[in-house]
Specification:
The chain has 306 residues and is an alpha+beta fold. The chain has eleven helices and twelve strands. It folds into three domains: 84 residues, Rossmann fold, CATH 3.40.50.20; 142 residues, D-amino Acid Aminotransferase, Chain A, domain 1; 58 residues, ATP-grasp fold, A domain (Dna Ligase, domain 1). The strands form three sheets. Strands 10-9-8-11-12 form a five-stranded antiparallel sheet. Strands 4-7-5-6 form a four-stranded antiparallel sheet.
Length: 306
Amino acid sequence: MSGNVALLMGGWSPEREVSLSSGIECAKALADRGYRVRSIDVGRDLPALLRALDPRPDLIFNALHGVGGEDGTIQGVLEMLAIPYTHSGVRASAVAMHKPTAKEIFIRAGLPVAGGMVVSREAALAADPMPAPFVVKPTDQGSSIGVRIVRIGDNSWRDEVAGWSYGEELLVEPFVGNRELTVAVMGERALGVCEIVPRGSFYDYTAKYSEGGSDHLIPAPIPPRDYAAALDIAARAHRALGCRGVSRADLRYDANAAEGARLYLLEINTQPGMTPTSLVPDIARSVGIGFDELVAWIAEDASCPR
């Protein structure tokens, strides 16, 4: 398949720079595959976006990340225009982006989660929501933006929460596991499991997008039973939310726990990064799927799924 592609990137979320990087890489890959690509830096000006989409493309490649581009907002616009677009639809995108809602669906689907609670910023500033160590994160951001691991005796996190701009609610989860895993899902197939070994204190924004910020161990060096369980959890989570195209499941892994209680699902990313340091392309390459092939598959999967 080939044709006219409008590639959306940029946006206004804190993940703007990541989206621009993803968009540049995907535009190159699509052009190499014979697509005619025009890249659009999306802002909050809807009439400007509509003008940029004229003439009407055959499909939209959505390389946006974060609020506005990954939470069902832009998907709703594209549904109204009836232009096929990549990745998940309105409902799956919105649910996956709001971590507490996604967690409830995972629990109902019988998937292992880390637990946790939603608290107001005011309450969090008044007292620790749970015994340390615990993790504080925004309810609807990606790329580890705003995430903070609170360890015993650490009170400085309150200063960060007092000044952050991610809303008046936050998600607090117990700090579980001692290793970080991620699984790429392509269609109905879980491709592989990667262990992420950050070179800093944890897999934060810097570790994700800085060259050499982390090591990606593919396939993850874990026992075969746990590897198969991680693949199964990711595929079931993808289906539970109604995701489409490519997604990425993030998990924590406790190598010291009793067998059968080692994995904890944290979240699903419905539009995972496609930058030079991103995880999904690395996992795809490990099973023989090159970057251009992966991007072309995502484009060919475009539809209007609602």
